[in-house]
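INFO  loader      accepted 1 record
INFO  loader      residues=172
INFO  predictor   begin
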Amino acid sequence: MIKKDLKHTEYNEYYSRYINMVDENIELIAGYEDDKKMVIDFFSSIPKDKLEYRYAENKWTIKEVIQHIIDTERIFMYRFLCISRNDKTALPGYEQDDYIAPSEANHKSMDALIEEFKMTRLYSQNLIKSISEKNLKNLGTASNSTISARACAFIMLGHSIWHINVIKERYL
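INFO  predictor   done
INFO  writer      dumping C-alpha cells
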C-alpha cells in the first residue's frame, strides 16, 4: 500500500502546488482510480458550447486543458518508468505550451479526448502496479532537479485537481 509520505528532497518545490492538493492518506493505486473517475465525470459534464472557450487571449481551451493533462501524464509516467528502473540519465524538461498547437485538441471530440485519457490512465495504473515500493523511492533527475519515481506519480494526482479547479474558476 503506497501512501503519500513524500519527503521534500524527492521533488522540486515547484511541484508542491500539485502534491499539496493530494490527501495525505491517499493510497496511490486507489487514488489513480478515484482521480480517473473525477476527471472523466468533470470533463463529460462540461457543455459543448464551452469546450473551445478561452477565458483570455492565448489561454488554452477546455479541450486543450484535457489534452495537456493527458500529455503531462505520459511524460511523467515516462519519467516514473526511467527513475523506477534506476536509469540515471538526466531527463529533459517539458515545455507544455509547445505541445498544445500540434496536439490539435480542438479538432478532437470530447469523447475522443476522454477515451485518450482513459487509455493513458490505464497504462499509468498498470505501470504503477508493476513497480515495487522499494523502487518507487528511486531518485533521478528531470528538468535539472532531483525527483523520485513516486513523486512523479503523486504529482499527476494533484495536477488534474489543479486544472479542474482552474476551469471551475475561470471557464465555467
